Amino acid sequence: MFRVLLFDLDGTLIQVDMRVFVKEYFRHLGMHLSPVIDPQQLKEHLGYATQQMIFNQDPEKTNREVFWEVFLDRVELPLDLLEPLIDEFYQHKFKNLKPFTRCKPEARAVMDRAEGLNFELVLATNPVFPSSAIYQRMQWGKVDRYDYSLVTTYENMHFCKPNPQYYLEILDKVGADPGECLMIGNDVDDDLCAAEVGIKTYLVEDFLINRHERPFEADYRGSLKELPDFLEEVAGASRRT
Ligand SMILES: [Mg+2]
Fold first, then answer.
1. Which residues are found with C-beta within 5 Å of the ion, ligand 1?
2. Is the same domain home to 48 and 10?
3. Each residue's pLDDT tens digit, 67-90
4. Same domain for 114 and 92?
5. How far is the CA of 241 from the centre of ligand 1 (A)?
6. How many structural domains does the chain have?
7. Is 24 helix (H, G, I), strand (E, B) or coil?
8. Ligand 1: distance of its center to the CA of 17 in Å?
9. Could you give the CA distance from residue 23 to residue 213 in angstroms, rounded to a whole number?
10. Exposed site from 117, 189, 211, 236, fewest CB < 10 Å?
11. Are 5 and 234 contacting, i.e. CB atoms less than 8 angstroms apart?
């Protein structure tokens, strides 16, 4: 049955309210870049460039390329001025956002069990961030030490959630059929849309997000705590078949 597990990160493996987190992220980055750009303008440009990256349908451009193209066009500052400053932010200041997240001990129990049962692991976090921002959050949640065959970042992906193309790109990268994969996440829009390409879904209800309060269907649902036993059952079922 399932061979590959796709895990969402924020709100699934780590406890974080992304509305608060993104607000703080913009605020911290705004302070850091304030010598060269007005923080309010930065916020607007970041928001716009992120939106364009999420809407992008061009398979030739990575998310990073889309982001920078739009962002540089808006801020009217050169890349060689901005990039070192932004790198410095991720290296030294992004860690100040850690207090807005919390580690979930159940997440390690899930990942330990998944690894023990020999599932292939994919960290299918929305690739709107550079890898350093993603790996730091994985560290904060203590889920960085697992052997992922893919961690989706804005450098290596060409689409974002909830675009079904994002899931097709993962299938292509790991060489899996949709029927072999299970997407595990907390977001009705971003994670359950994996079903559109034939991937089964497990909705983690601990911090369920349903922005548009729309009716939805998940193949499976439950808490993160219940997931290790569920994986055990699923692995057992595939051994029997
Ligand atoms: Mg999430």
1. 8, 10-11, 186-187
2. no
3. 999 999 999 899 999 989 999 999
4. no
5. 32
6. 2
7. helix
8. 9
9. 22
10. 211
11. no
